[in-house]
Q: What sequence folds into this?
């Protein structure tokens, strides 16, 4: 199977499939979050302008972290490649680290006063769904998008890489879709059984961290590459952090529901009134 074309032309206009795929993914994220906001009774008129800034912040953060992590191996002697985003090279951690804070800050300033944990629970399935789609429309269609070399029947050819490669973007997409199903299940538990706010977010962090460690360790890591090791460590940290937050939220809810209500304090004046009447 030949590599998927990474560039195509419409007349004199040259389009990169990687960039087009990311644009579709961001549009989907905007539409899905807008729908979720309305379904939960919140206005969404503010979301369009905030989304533009989130996209910019995510791309800048993703590129900065990728360049820093691969500086000595790729960019130190080829600084001109820093701006060549169409060839791939966006760190998911960098995009989230800058895009999410910008989104929450602007949402607080321009949108309705949605409680922070509820907003995080609304956003988490959007991120997972977008990641599921984005892996198919982003890395799967970019230069050097494959994983380790393989001779397996499911190996694929990618532009800029020799021989068949593990189709890591397909693996990532399938794995994240399973995470999305888990997030939806946790969300139903929170809404229908009174689970704690923030649980969808914390479980999402946990399972996404596990997934990032698995894919980086088994499918992508290059021996001795510090950036790859950093991704694995960050994945473990996120998994532990998400699990810890989940346990804290559940423990707090259990403590609150198991505490019996304090008996009503007698009103002395009420007693005096009864005595006087008698």
A:
């Amino acid at each position: 199977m030949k590599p998927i074309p990474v560039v195509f032309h419409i007349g004199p206009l040259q389009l990169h499939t990687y960039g087009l795929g990311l644009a579709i993914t961001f549009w989907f994220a905007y539409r899905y979050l807008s729908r979720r906001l309305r379904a939960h009774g919140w206005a969404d008129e503010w979301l369009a302008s905030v989304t533009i800034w989130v996209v910019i912040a995510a791309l800048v953060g993703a590129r900065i972290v990728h360049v820093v992590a691969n500086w000595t191996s790729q960019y130190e002697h080829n600084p001109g490649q820093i701006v060549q985003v169409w060839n791939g090279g966006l760190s998911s951690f960098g995009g989230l680290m800058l895009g999410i804070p910008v989104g929450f800050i602007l949402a607080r300033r321009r949108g309705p006063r949605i409680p922070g944990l509820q907003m995080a629970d609304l956003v988490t399935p959007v991120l997972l769904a977008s990641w599921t789609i984005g892996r198919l429309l982003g890395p799967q269609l970019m230069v050097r998008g494959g994983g380790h070399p393989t001779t397996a029947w499911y190996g694929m050819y990618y532009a800029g890489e020799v021989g068949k490669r593990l189709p890591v973007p397909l693996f990532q997409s399938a794995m994240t879709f399973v995470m999305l199903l888990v997030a939806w299940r946790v969300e139903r538990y929170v809404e229908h059984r009174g689970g704690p706010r923030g649980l969808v977010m914390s479980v999402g962090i946990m399972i996404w961290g596990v997934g990032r460690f698995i894919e980086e360790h088994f499918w992508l890591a290059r021996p001795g590459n510090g950036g790859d090791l950093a991704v694995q460590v960050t994945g473990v940290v996120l998994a532990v952090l998400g699990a810890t937050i989940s346990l804290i939220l559940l423990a707090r809810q259990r403590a609150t529901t198991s505490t019996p209500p304090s008996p009503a304090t007698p009103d002395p004046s009420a007693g005096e009134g009864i005595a006087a009447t008698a």
